[in-house]
Amino acid sequence: MRHLLCFCCFIAVFAAAAEKAVLRMAMPDYPPYTYVEDGQYQGEGYDAFVFIMQHLQRDFHISLVPNYGRAVLDLQNEVIDGLFLASENAERNNMAVFSDPVSITRWTWVWLTQEQTLTPDSSNFASRAIVSAQINSNIYLWLKAQGYRVAGGPNNIRDLFRLLNNRRVDAIMLPEQTALTVIKENNYPLQNYQFKTMRELPFAIYISKRFLEKEPDFMVQLNNAIAEYQQSRKALPQ
């Protein structure tokens, strides 16, 4: 009888594990956080996500998408169960739940050093400057909501510097680390650019509300795994 009970418990645990669906996630092309190099997923955001999923012992599938607009569309159409890493906004909150922070993103103005008259410190910058950000990104939507004169943004965040270098816009906004990565990748002289951090925001994981209807405890488990990830980072030598 005892052996039969143990066997039944084993079957129940195995069945519960088998019922967990593969977590379908979108990962925007957003260096240095998430990107592809030599056919392999790379980036500190990707590494963090893998650590968190390993802690949860959760199978996952990642789809690389060109930008956040595509990720949100796939989320809306239930093609994916979530996206990472992302900052928070009302549109995303309507269809998904925002996790505890995995990292921090610093939205930063970048403009040409040669530009002396119309800079983010200018009193008339918001009303006169032509600015840009990656199309349909959170930054792009925020700039439009704040009343900036926003030119059409590129799908690929790396192309923002082409707009700036060709003087088609007065300034661009993107995460500070992304800006520095693109500058380094293209061997642009760093001294050609000026920087000013505008906002500092949590960078985290979105999980769809539809998925959480099926697994209501998942968000607590995810945030616990994120806490473990943060502890592991503190343990690393500085």
UniProtKB/TrEMBL annotation:
Signal peptide from the UniProt entry: 1-17
Domain Solute-binding protein family 3/N-terminal intervals: 28-233
Keywords of the record: Signal
Pfam families found in the cross-reference section: SBP_bac_3
Database matches in InterPro entries: Solute-binding_3/MltF_N
Protein name: ABC-type amino acid transport substrate-binding protein
Record Gene3D superfamilies: Periplasmic binding protein-like II (3.40.190.10)
Keyword Membrane annotated: no
Domain of life (superkingdom): Bacteria
